Write the structure tokens for this entry.
Amino acid sequence: MKTQLENIYNSAKADIEKAQSMNDIDEIRLKYLSRKGEFNSIKKGLKDLSDEDKRTIGALANRITNDLEEMLKEKHDIFYQKELNEKLQHDRIDITLSGKYIPEGKVHPITATTNEIVTIFQNLGFSVVAPELSPEVETEYYNFDMLNVPHDHPARDVQDTFYIKNMPNAVLRSQTSGAQIHVMENQKPPIKVVAPGRVYRNENVNSRKNNFFHQIEGLYVDKGITFGDLKGVLNEFIRLYFGASRPTRFRSSFFPFTEPSAEVDVQCIMCQGKGCRTCSGTGWLEILGAGMVDVNVLKGVGIDPEIYSGFAFGMGIERLSMLKYAIDDIRLFFNNDKRFLEQF
Ligand code: DAH
């Protein structure tokens, strides 16, 4: 048994010396030292030996396996280093190469402006109207009738509003104000909401007008709401959107669905109020319409004007975005020119 062991040892040693790679080392370990390897089959015979032999042969077997393990490890480390070095040579990374350009998507400026305005109103306690209460395809009922717009009002003319073929009374909404009616029909006061969305008008397209654009509608109905609340909220909005320094003014105006009504101007960003082409020489630019919700509108949706009052406003998103970023042509928003869109 002793010679058997020594023979195996010698042949294992010879194999180790001949080994050329980590792979060879693994195979040698498998052949001699694994559970099914040659040493183990001999070690199984130990139990038939005398106690004396068991001790000496056992010790020899252990010494031999330890020896082989050590030799294997030494070789393994050498090959490991060698193979690693080869790999590093081969896979060398050239850190001087320029990186791969991965174009980054941008948020469309209309979306960005809408989000910014909505966030300001959310911080002032307004919530956003669910889309189903603010549809783009409306009936005349919501777009005009319930907003107290008379039947002969010029805004109803096909020159101004897009009617949908073969759908009587259906229009592409010309204003987001219809959302006010949907909300008041569905919710009891207190109501404090904004509704952003797209509106359509039958316009000749030029640098200031497009046949669709975007608005944000606001509505606040509760007990004891006054024109002072309206001014406070809108002034705060303007301060947060434009920064504290931009002068504003309230001008009295008329809308069928508000009484009294007002329009709000901000000082022209192009000429700082001196008067230029953009502001037609006035030094001011209109950004929104607003007013106290008309008693007829409240009655129409079953809200008692003796108990509740409210204010509403509607502002043009393109107009607000153009003023803030000094964009001089509304068509830029919709041409999908990457050179423009990538600036945001
Ligand atoms: N809907 C109006 C427009 O498109 C804007 C407007 C004015 C909305 C006064 C309002 C309001 O809610 O109270 O010109």
Q: What stands out?
A: The chain has a mean pLDDT of 92.
